[in-house]
Structure prediction request, 356 residues.
Amino acid sequence: MANNRITIKDIAQKAGVSKGTVDRVLHNRGEVSKESRERIEAVLKEMNYEPNVYASALANNKEFLVIVVIPECVKGDYWSKIENGIIKFSQEMIHFNASVRIFHFDQIDPDSCRKVFDELKTETFDGIIFPPVFSNLSHEFAGYLTARNIPYIYIDSYIEDTNPLSYFGMDSYKSGWLAARLITISLKKDHEIAIFRYSEPEEEVINQIYKRCSGFRHFFEKNNLSPVIHDIIITGRDENADREIISSYLKKERNIRYGIMFNSRIHTIAAYLENSEFSNIRLAGFDVIDSNVHYLKNEMVGFLIAQRPFTQGYFALKVMADHLIFRKTAPLRNLIPIDIIIKENVDSYTSFNPLE
Prediction:
């Protein structure tokens, strides 16, 4: 018997009970004898019966609130594309009395993130989606959510030893490994590499950056390669100060021929170097955003590694909605493809997204 044709009457007849008894078992309400429950459950298993969760959700009339926490963003940048994916799917949730509230924080300021997490501890909501940007803060907040049985989904990066409902993003470690492999293709013996990164706050680790950097460095170690790798630490807030830091460092280290940044802001480094004596340094970065694409096309940036942010946002919210409204489960790790974008394929890559 096909599942969509099974009725309560069918189940009741096969189990030898009343329709009311079947209804009480299906909806877990009222008193049912152990013997009747076992007979009904056996029939349900035999008939491969699943309740019509769509109809049940409409009849339930419960209101659901999903919280989304992401870094502050402007149109066209990485996080705005994740937000656009979330907004896109949120429009499909309105028929189920489900809504979304979005909170923002400064992605290089852990205090900003802490304030949002503290505020949410005073709020009531049914599920939450957030990127674990700051490892320690996110680990503590995940523990808070788990203790209160609030489902949460990670986007962009993942933290081990926590219990998320699901994760959407690339394999951060492998993306760093891949970046090293690509640079090695044209790396010569005397060439040195610069990793540009922001100064990290005390007692805090920026999760995504750490994993990508680890994969990058481990590629060289595992393949018995030993290029000199420099860490150039910049503020990320003061353009003039950062320009001076970069210029002073590169004047001392003349063998640096490659530079990489493990977030979406390689365009800031390209802008510093473009009209300088160091414009011959080849750069690589992450995320296909407008500013990065500009420097990809003028060949200041050799390649970008991308992870489809709109898709992350869209499907992370879809999985949360399916869990809350329809009681569906999803794979824990939903790894987004690691895309390699170069000048020759960037236009077709950015112009095709059937979801948007």
